[in-house]
Write a structure and sequence with these properties.
The complex is a heterodimer of chains A (235) and B (336). With 235 residues, chain A is an alpha+beta fold. Helix content of chain A is 29%, strand content 27%. With 336 residues, chain B is of the alpha+beta class.
Amino acid sequence: MDYTVHPLGDNAILIELGNEISEDAHQKVQTLTAFLEKHSPDWMIEYIPAYTTVTIFYNPLEIYQLSDEELPFDYICSLIKPLMKKLGENKAMEARVVEIPVCYGGEFGPDLDYVAEHNGLTPDEVIDIHSSGSYLVYMIGFAPGFPFIGGMSEQIAAPRRDTPRLKIPERTVGIAGMQTGIYPIETPGGWQLIGRTPVKLFRPMDESPTLLKAGDKIKFKPISLEEYHYWEERD
Amino acid sequence: MIKVLKPGLLSSIQDLGRTGYQKFGVIASGAMDPFSHRMANLLSGNEENDSALEITMMGPTLTFEEDTLISICGGDLSPSINGQPIRTWRSIFVKKGSELKFGACKKGCRAYLAVSGGFSVPEVMNSRSTYLRAGIGGFKGRALKAGDVLETGKPSPQSLKMANYLSKQLHDKTLVENDWGIASKLIPETIGNPEIRITRGRQFDLFSHESRVQLFTHAFEVTAQSDRMGYRLKGSSLALSEHAEQISEAVNFGSIQVPPDGNPIVLLADRQTTGGYPKIGQVAAVDLPLLAQAKPGDALRFVEISNKEAQQLLIKRELKLKELKQGIFLKTRGVN
């Protein structure tokens, strides 16, 4: 697998696996992170995957004592080399499909009408298009469990609000430009809000603290307000 | 047990951060000045990563409901016990019923109060650090409030030895300061307008020639819009030589990113895990404590060093710290 390495501060190495957002680069990132999850090299403290990169954190003093005199970054590079060779080229991986119920419009989606109007559609058509798409979680970042999702239809794209809202309630589903996303925790933000899910995306007390992870496929499922309340109580 | 009479401006329980969960988008948090945090813990006989109280600018007023071994390291926020000024960077044995207060912010802006045994708060995702925005970790996921009661953990054998040694000198006094502390040459010198050593960021070359020069020749002021997430700086407006969209990728403690308005932001303990703004620089880890003690109004000057130098400086300091740790252990062993 082709890659380049870069230091990110004195305790991290950034491995770049592509130079544009694509399913191909995403697959490479997934292959590397699957390896790191499985083998968890003892020099690794943790890693952060992104669209085209994986950044691995290490303890420079421990590496220094391990490697004797060598610069920790150089030593880490020498460890990465055989690791990357082992990975080989893109192995296709089975994606998990996660269904996310969404109650669209109303008080949960105050901008649904705007998104419809902006695209010359009815609110119901926006809901249809949004919930029939197939989405890929490229990465998690920005907030705990916040998915960067690809695959939204251009037909329902809408610009960010000129003035961001100071508080967007947790679990709100929104649209910004060509992207759709879900706010796991209450955050300020400029997205157009179209609905809310009763399902918690951030679960700090669970072993896996987020509902979604990079590589997941998402399906949105429209639900009624009654169903929303039922789900919310159950979750 | 410690009672909070006044909470201070922003007092939160932190350890050295929440590691292992950044891949889920969970921020690292932890002490802004990890060096002072570690020192305060070592002087209380704790592990470096135990929880301590991070105190910002205006400190809290606390009462100790039992005899307690404490240490305060980091910025000088004029701590006193029952009106008697106490020294920082030193172990102090405090008698039950004493009141700890803070006064003027003389040097730096963050102090770390460690107590023997650490603060007894539940671990959330392997850490006791407070993640303020998500409301988790630390003491009930938030900064301290008046009326809070903090429990302390079980002291280590090292803590007990230190406490026992000092308590013998207490007699009818309210506190005993140890006769040794951390040598001043080991403490990063906290001064206003510090020089901060940085390396080139990953997108350094994408910035205009002028911006690259200004980064190292102009001063950047820490603005009032600075917090545990990052310091927003004001100085020369930095610009890319041509507009280029960045692909979001990981950021680190000390990454200097530049949003489209041209004002750099240095990311700190409560930084997001990833960012999409170009990074012009990266603060060398060895100077992060110095940076974390800078307060709004201070002017920073950036000095360029190579990645190699940055790592070598860090290792040099870590080796010294290891020696120091050994020294504290030996000194304590010798007293019984």
